[in-house]
Design a protein that fits this description.
By secondary structure, this protein is an alpha/beta fold. It has 3 domains: about 110 residues, NAD(P)-binding Rossmann-like Domain (Rossmann fold, 3-Layer(aba) Sandwich), CATH 3.40.50.720; about 35 residues; about 35 residues, no CATH class. It has 6 helices and 7 strands, in the order E-H-E-H-E-E-H-E-E-E-H-H-H. It has a 5-stranded parallel sheet with strand order 3-2-1-4-5, sandwiched between helices. Strand 2, helix 2 and strand 3 form a beta-alpha-beta unit. It is elongated, with a radius of gyration of 20 Å. It binds ligand SHN and 1,4-dihydronicotinamide adenine dinucleotide (NAI).
Length: about 190
């Protein structure tokens, strides 16, 4: 069986600068899900045109819209770049410019030109679940996201908060703490 070897990380988007190149449907979809998960993300979008929806979204977040065509200068100071234009050559230029400067880059419509994929994301308080199908079926990632949004209980965050409080009260060395926390949470994974 094929296997997903991607390594998920949870980025502190507040500390990072994201650039989106292009301002069409795909840019708006990527921006929507980025801000849904991470409303504190710092985003710049460069494009000769923007959709109404994108302009409205930008007003709600830390999003700067620049009305221009892509030039290499725009990647300066950016950590993560997502190319979404409808001109394949422009997207490949963005990819090459980013690789040359060791920046993480995603060409949304071209998986081989992605250092990372955006995923389906479920957030419940402090808990976050990210889903990827290895780029094979974004629709499956969306459906799984919807499924987990349904089945993960809203009060999962209470468990996290309670255990965080309990964790602070446990005395002893690291091994003893791990043992106590495992004992305390055993029933969560026990088969009935
Ligand atoms: C590789 C990847 C690169 C990247 O974008 O990062 C990529 C690529 C492509 N997407 C395409 C199409 C669609 N994408 C969606 C939706 C989402 N796409 C997302 C991620 C990813 N999309 C990355 C892989 C993630 C993984 O590993 O699973 C999600 C999860 C996250 C997000 O967008 O933030 C978000 C759901 C969010 C949510 O609902 O929670 C839908 C469904 C819909 O809109 O209903 C469709 C239409 C149906 C279909 O085609 O499946 C096409 C074909 C374009 C064409 O045909 O022209 C390509 C290009 C290709 O595959 O070649
Ligand atoms: N990854 C995904 O989820 C999907 C990918 N696609 C593909 O992605 C591409 C983009 O699709 P859409 O967003 O629907 O197209 P669109 O036509 O809505 O948007 C393209 C955007 O790129 C901008 N642009 C064009 N040249 C530019 C330049 N030199 N510099 C900066 N911006 C520039 C345009 O002004 C426009 O805002 C298409 O090739 C499409 O096939 C389509 C659907 C889903």
């Amino acid at each position: 069986m094929e296997r997903n070897n991607l390594y998920p990380i949870f980025l502190k988007t507040k500390n990072l600068q994201v650039l989106i190149v292009g301002g069409g449907f795909v840019a708006e979809e990527k921006l929507t899900f980025l801000l849904k998960s991470s409303p504190d993300a710092n985003v710049t979008i460069v494009s000769p045109m923007f959709r109404e929806g994108t302009i409205a979204l930008a007003k709600k977040g830390n999003v700067t819209l620049i009305e221009d065509i892509y030039k290499k200068d725009f990647i300066q100071g950016k950590h993560i770049v997502v190319a979404t234009t409808d001109i394949p050559e422009v997207n490949v230029d963005v990819y090459k410019d980013c690789r040359a400067e060791a920046k993480l880059v995603n060409v949304a419509d071209n998986p081989p030109y992605c250092d990372f994929y955006m995923g389906g994301i479920v957030t419940k308080g402090n808990v976050k679940v990210a889903i990827s199908t290895n780029g094979k079926s974004p629709t499956t990632a969306k459906r799984l996201r919807q499924f987990f949004e349904e089945v993960i209980p809203e009060n999962i965050d209470d468990l996290v908060k309670n255990l965080n409080e309990y964790r602070k009260t446990i005395k002893g060395n690291f091994e003893e703490k791990v043992e106590k926390l495992n004992e305390f949470t055993k029933s969560l994974v026990e088969k009935k």
